[in-house]
Design brief:
The protein has 21 helices and no strands. By secondary structure, it is an all-alpha fold. The longest helix has about 35 residues, at about 515-550.
């Protein structure tokens, strides 16, 4: 160990290098990619029935298609802590490239799929890649802009993310006008590939120390830089020397075989499957009808496993340094939450069909993760990361998630309670809220130039709480009065938008360069957990009030009276969301009244 340890060099993001065109270009591409990933959460809403038909299932099996959406959410949420940690140990740019590659592969798999499990697997990969883009992009903002100057870029990232949510259903509808549902995923793959190439080509000068992560806590070496000493390579490879050329060539050959075999298995070209000479590898094993459970599919899986073994020395040390065991435990816990609540019909139930089994598993995983955090030498979430303004930022993010999902789910539900309103018309009512969110996000980022995060976020959330309280008084047909309903929806969205940049800014200001990725991922996770769990809790109270209203009906068969009782549930959800948002406004005060000051180092 005679080499001198590499020294982590930090750049002042306010310097000319920090303001370089390449740096801004990289952030622009990453932000638009985040918008694309956000759009994919809702892009399948209008195409879900067609996707089910593509998997050989009819409308009567629509409930089985729920995992097409929840699979994306599972990938999006469950691995965020691990990706955030990896973004602190290696190049943020490398993380962007890896996530974009996974997103493209997931899009292609989904677009090819003719079986529900394959379709769900493709959506999971899409969520995995799309979710990982968020913490890496927020960490890049923290790297390129110092405290006190991050407001506007953070606001823009938040705005494009919310804009993606707005455009998701519209993008899906536009593609369906000229193509079938598979066209949605071909477009996703094409755009993802364009972004991948753009990130690959953009190499900001003088920002290696900024964009390449921090210092490995265990070794003291700079991680992720494109320039390494021999000792750095030993740390990253897990063994001395360079990789054998033979192993490298073999890995490439195995990878190519795996890709070709997997593509043939999923596409199953008719010219081959019906051929007497070449059709045998496509014949399913036993009684199966799956294209995957075939000789050609088995070859693809074997090639993938062999590729993992051959390349383990490149990725396994980094995963171990990131505490992959802790990441697995928290992924199980978050996955249990997602699958429990996202698979439930919010109009009828709180827990999904597997909730009673998954929740105990999730609870045990949380306990095991807590033990792991206390005993691991380098835990997933480094000790001392959640301190200062990071904690109130996480709580505010969680409560904001509850407010968002209440509006996103129950506004269309209320619209559907009006006779003659279609699903598409109900979705367009929601756009009045969604469009206001990015507007507020940009303004919130701008205000951070002069005001403290608490002074921006707290009033914005108070506005949202007031709007939600007004919405809790809506009756059936209230959305037919465009003046008042549009105003309340716009105010609610605008207030939430105002809080997006301040929450991220406060959390990043109280974290170091080496933990920007972790903190960014935690903020996103808190918000997503708030959306999943908050909806379930509010729905539980709403369903109870709905049942009470039904029990008090003089004529339980009166359809109009039943619809009015259903409105009680919606009113309850809006009221609960108003209380949650008011609590968020009060807690947001702790984000700070004074403007975050510029410092050379973060």
């Amino acid at each position: 160990m005679g080499a001198t340890p590499a020294v982590t060099q930090r750049h002042d993001p306010s310097s000319p290098a920090g303001k370089s065109r390449g740096a801004r270009s990289l952030l622009t591409v990453a932000s638009v990619a985040v918008a694309l990933a956000a759009a994919d959460t809702y892009v399948v809403v209008l195409a879900l029935t067609d996707m089910m038909a593509g998997a050989g299932l009819g409308i009567e099996s629509l409930q089985k298609g729920t995992p097409i959406i929840s699979g994306f959410l599972l990938g999006y949420i469950a691995v965020l802590p691990l990706i955030g940690r990896l973004a602190d140990l290696m190049s943020r740019r490398t993380i962007l490239l890896a996530c974009l590659a996974i997103f493209v592969v997931g899009s292609l798999v989904t677009g090819i799929a003719v079986e529900l499990p394959v379709m769900i697997g493709g959506r999971f990969l899409q969520g995995l890649g799309g979710g990982g883009l968020v913490p890496a992009t927020l960490a890049i903002v923290a790297d390129l802009w110092p405290p006190g100057r991050r407001g506007m870029p953070l606001g823009i990232v938040g705005a494009v993310q919310e804009l993606g949510s707005v455009l998701g259903p519209l993008l899906g509808a536009a593609i369906l006008l000229v193509s079938d549902w598979r066209g949605i995923f071909w477009v996703n793959a094409a755009l993802g590939l364009v972004f991948f190439v753009a990130v690959w080509l953009i190499r900001p000068d003088g920002l290696d120390g900024q964009l390449d992560g921090g210092t490995d806590e265990a070794t003291g070496h700079q991680m992720g830089s494109g320039r390494h000493t021999d000792e750095d390579r030993q740390v990253r490879a897990g063994r001395p020397g360079t990789r054998s050329r033979v192993v490298t060539v073999l890995a490439w050959l195995v990878g190519i075989v795996g890709v070709v075999a997997a593509s043939l298995a999923l596409i199953a070209p008719e010219a081959l499957t019906t051929s007497v000479a070449y059709g045998e590898p496509f014949v399913p094993f036993g009684e199966s009808t799956s294209r995957v459970w075939t000789p050609i599919g088995a070859l693809a899986m074997a090639a993938l496993l062999l590729l993992l073994v051959l390349t383990a020395s490149r990725w396994l040390p980094m995963l171990l340094a990131a505490d992959v065991l802790g990441a697995l435990l928290i992924a199980i816990a978050l996955g249990s939450l997602v699958l429990t609540f996202s698979s439930a019909d919010p109009a009828k139930e709180v827990l999904g069909p597997w909730g009673l089994w998954l929740l105990p598993v999730g609870a045990l995983s949380v306990l095991a993760f807590a033990v792991r955090q206390r005993t691991a030498d380098s835990p997933l979430i480094a000790r001392g990361v959640v301190h200062g303004k990071v904690l109130p930022a996480l709580v505010v993010s969680l409560l904001v998630g509850t407010a968002i999902v209440a509006v996103v789910v129950d506004v269309p539900l209320l619209a559907r309670l009006t006779e003659g309103t279609t699903e598409t018309e109900a979705a367009f009512v929601l756009i009045q809220f969604l469009v206001a969110v990015p507007v507020g996000a940009v303004l919130g980022g701008f205000l951070l130039r002069r005001l403290g995060p608490g002074l921006v976020a707290a009033p914005g959330l108070a506005l949202t709480a007031a709007a939600l309280w007004g919405m809790s008084g809506w009756t059936r047909g209230a959305l037919d009065e465009p003046g008042m309903s549009t105003t309340l929806l716009a105010v609610a969205g605008f207030g939430i938008g105002l809080a997006i940049a301040p929450v991220n800014d406060a959390a990043l200001a109280d974290s170091t360069h080496e933990t920007h990725g972790t903190v960014s991922s935690l903020v996103v996770v808190a918000r997503m957990v708030g959306m999943v769990v908050g909806l379930a809790l509010l729905t539980a109270v709403g369903l109870r009030r709905f049942q009470q209203a039904v029990n008090e009906l003089a004529d339980p068969t009166d359809s109009d009276a039943l619809l009015d009782a259903a409105v009680v549930q919606v009113q309850t959800v809006f009221g609960g969301a108003a209380i949650a948002t008011l609590a968020a406004a009060l807690i947001a005060v702790a984000l700070g009244w004074h403007r975050v000051r510029h410092t050379t180092h973060s």
